[in-house]
Amino acid sequence: MRDGREERVLRALVEVARQGDEEAFGALVRSVGDGCMAIAYRILRDVDQAEDAVQTAFIAAWRELPTLRDLDRFEPWLHRMLVNACYAEARRSKRWATNVRVLGVESTSAPDDVLTVNDRDQLERGMRRLPVDQRAVLVFRYYLELTLPEVADRLAIPVGTAKSRLHYASVALRSALEADARTPTAQERPA
Amino acid sequence: MSAPRDPERLVRAFIDEGPTELPDRAVASILSEITRTHQRAMFGPWRTLSMSRPALAAILIVAVVSIGGLALWATRPALPSSASQPTHSPTAMTSPSQILPSASPTFRGSAVGTIAYGRYDAAEAADHLYAVAAAGGVPRQLDSRPSCCLTVSPDGRSIVYGVTVSGSRIQPAARSLTNDTPASLFDSPAGVNLNLAPGAISSKLDLAFSGWDERDETRNGIYLSIGNGGGLIWGNFERLTTNTDGLLDVPLGFSPDGSKLMFLRAAPGAERGDLYVIGLDGSGLRQLNRAPSVVQASALFGAGASWAPDGRRAAFTAFDPGAAGCDATGVFVVDVASSISDAIADPDGCATSARWSPDGTWIAFERATNAPGDHDVWVMHPDGSGPVNVGASIATGVCCAQWSPDSSRLLVQAGDASKADVNLWIVDVDGSHPALLTSVTSLYKWYAWSPEQ
Fold it and tell me: Which residue of A has its CA nearest to B24?
């Protein structure tokens, strides 16, 4: 979370960049680029595709920046472009569908929020099976910790749609984990 | 048999994993691409307005008169305050475009000592540390690596700071402020394996660090390296505070006799929290501010609290971050042993950066609102009398003072931080003789005034 001063620096950079200042836009990229990369990767589950989506989003943002009316809304506005770029990347390439790691199996006995190798494997598979628009809702809700109305605003969808996408995505991932729980452990598997 | 695990927490933990940095090559690629990409042309509504020449002329006259009137109003002299509470000059309410120094910025040869500071480098997106003579001159870089968290020892001879290594990891470093001896880097003592950021240094060269473990927040706390009297070495390394709820303790300053430490307890990354004092032996932990008010400490604003030279009292600024963002703002003098505090001022907006002068006669503090450029620095006596707006002769956006060793002058930053358009200034305690110290507009952090030449 940015403090008030950082917000004001960001706003000033947007204001200058909107007038065509490439240096200010460069500073903006450095300021918010990491966050965009984190979002894009978590939606696309692929580093190369995420980088491509971030690049597409920033170039679109540069081109359209003069149309941004409310400078304080730069980041939500950029995130909307980023999500659209992620959707385009997802349509452009289906390579993740076959790019699933197969990891070793270990005991599922671990504390809450401590992921076992199995958890990661099953959740990775589960995420990749989700439609990309459901992944986006998950990322904005759980990674950015936004409220559902905020998620809906960032994704330009009705709140009800955001809610249902979150519900279906959560059920799917929960099922993935439960499937894992039913998987025999290494000791139980036949040699 | 293990307890059922919470799928939602597992999903959250899974989503938290993964890269969080845009590689430099991707940034370079974006910047290269935008130089070849034109922005969308915009045409304002004025192009479609159908207006007669007389109407346009009338609007122009009204605009000129309004702007002129505003400028005259904004630049009129500040009225001295006779009350114990500061009444803020309208000069501080002007817009960033009106940041025009009214004094001729000249370096003065009479200011003594050395000023150390951090400056943000936008091209590198990192901070670097510099030192410059208080009388002016060419700054010298103190470390070629991106650095942070500068603290000057009370005798002004040494600095401790953090060097950013391998991404975001900070490694403590120390070096002389007065010569070019290379810095000594300190890694966590053997077996400790913590992130350590320097926070305070005492007259005995005891060091206090904010320590944290990204995988085990129960290890977060203040760690001391004491017994460094013979030089900046790792002395006895021990843990001083233990926090709960994942909070982080940030050392703000040792008491003048070095027996106590003042610190801020806040959420990681937050710059506002509760102010505490604790003995170096772990005794006497005491909260100095009263809920719901919070104290601010950050790289830009500095600490919101400081010790009185007598070591029995401290000054701090606090505000309630409630409905309006800065409610119930106050400047307080607190008796450390009892935690009984007296409000000596209740300025509008947020107050930060309370700095007690070395001679004990003044307390400087900053008052700000969220409006760009609306910052000013005030000094007043510890009983609340004699308030002076020391920045009125410089410009708007005057913030966050540090005292000269002889208490006769203040080192402040001034300008528009929202545009990273800030410089360091030196001004007399009565607000006269402002002089520009730096010439590179940027963001300035962790600055301090050492008596050493």
Answer: A30
